[in-house]
């Protein structure tokens, strides 16, 4: 389904990014695994991609640093020959209530989660324009749609990603570059594993399907969006949240 396609997934050494990388590889894509610090984990994902039959490269770059990102795109394109798919997945949280939130906590989240999407999209778009085709999927969050106490920085960044998705979808449509977003709700990760039973029940009470999502729930929709089956979909944000935000 994605045979011979070349993909770059940011923040792919663990969590949702890792699962997306493996899902794309399982459908035939070659995958570049971007990471911020954990080289060993990124190499492990690369070995898993190769185990699925794809080519893999690991590349360290801070997604918010334009010169590092430009170099990353150059390297991936040189290694794979083209770049067909970008998944802007890297993200962080620095939660705090508004009156306690430090300027630095606000800036860090906006830089990684919003500016990072801008920097990577811009760098990759140059290459996709030359190829006259491309698919970009941004990982937003339902928090960017409905807000969440303690996450003013994160909600602002993710709402920004949704607006950025719509604008770039309109700007790049004539170049045959399709841009969409996914907005996950509560997804099981190392973080949710450490929640107490009471906290889990509180979460479940907000979800009509009464269960948490998995990284695979997100990766499956991303894989669909970058496939030919989704060739008439652009500018959309698909909620993957068990019906939490309608
Ligand atoms: P995670 O912390 O496990 O993974 C995030 C990855 O991004 C890590 O590998 C990290 O090293 C990388 N990263 C962070 N800053 C970076 C930078 N500057 N440059 C490059 N890489 C960087 O988190 P996750 O739960 O897998 O989240 C993945 C994405 O999904 C994020 O954008 C997150 O906001 C979004 N999301 C997650 C959930 C959830 O419930 N887990 C819900 C909604 C949205």
UniProtKB/TrEMBL annotation:
Keyword entries, A-Z: Fatty acid biosynthesis, Fatty acid metabolism, Lipid biosynthesis, Lipid metabolism, NADP, Oxidoreductase
Pathway: Lipid metabolism; fatty acid biosynthesis
Catalyses which reaction(s): a (3R)-hydroxyacyl-[ACP] + NADP(+) = a 3-oxoacyl-[ACP] + NADPH + H(+)
EC number from the UniProt entry: 1.1.1.100
Superkingdom per UniProt: Bacteria
MF term (GO), any: 3-oxoacyl-[acyl-carrier-protein] reductase (NADPH) activity
Pfam families: adh_short_C2
SMART domains: PKS_KR
Top-rank EC class of the record's enzyme: oxidoreductase
InterPro entries: 3oxo_ACP_reduc, KR_dom, NAD(P)-bd_dom_sf, Sc_DH/Rdtase_CS, SDR, SDR_fam
Domain Ketoreductase: from-to ranges: 5-190
Family from the record: Belongs to the short-chain dehydrogenases/reductases (SDR) family.
Subunit composition and interactions: Homotetramer.
Function: Catalyzes the NADPH-dependent reduction of beta-ketoacyl-ACP substrates to beta-hydroxyacyl-ACP products, the first reductive step in the elongation cycle of fatty acid biosynthesis.
Record-given protein name: 3-oxoacyl-[acyl-carrier-protein] reductase
Species of the source: Virgibacillus xinjiangensis
């Amino acid at each position: 389904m994605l045979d011979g396609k070349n993909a770059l997934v940011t923040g792919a050494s663990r969590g949702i990014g890792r699962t997306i990388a493996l899902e794309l590889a399982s459908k035939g894509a070659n995958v570049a695994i971007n990471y911020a610090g954990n080289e060993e984990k990124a190499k492990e994902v690369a070995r898993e991609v190769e185990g699925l039959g794809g080519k893999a490269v690991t590349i360290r770059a801070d997604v918010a640093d334009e010169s590092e990102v430009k170099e990353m795109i150059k390297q991936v394109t040189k290694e794979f020959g083209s770049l067909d798919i970008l998944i802007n997945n890297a993200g962080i949280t620095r939660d705090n209530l508004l009156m306690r939130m430090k300027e630095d906590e606000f800036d860090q989240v906006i830089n990684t989660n919003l500016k990072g999407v801008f920097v990577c999209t811009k760098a990759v778009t140059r290459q996709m324009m030359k190829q006259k085709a491309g698919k970009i999927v941004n990982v937003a969050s339902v928090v960017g749609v409905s807000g969440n106490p303690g996450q003013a920085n994160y909600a602002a960044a993710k709402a920004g990603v949704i607006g950025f998705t719509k604008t770039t979808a309109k700007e790049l449509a004539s170049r045959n570059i399709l841009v969409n977003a996914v907005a996950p709700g509560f997804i099981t990760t190392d973080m949710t594993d450490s929640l107490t039973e009471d906290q889990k029940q509180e979460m479940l009470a907000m979800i009509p399907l009464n269960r948490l999502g998995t990284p695979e729930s997100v990766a499956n929709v991303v894989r669909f969006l970058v496939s030919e089956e989704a060739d008439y979909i652009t500018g959309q944000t698909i909620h993957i949240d068990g019906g939490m935000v309608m």
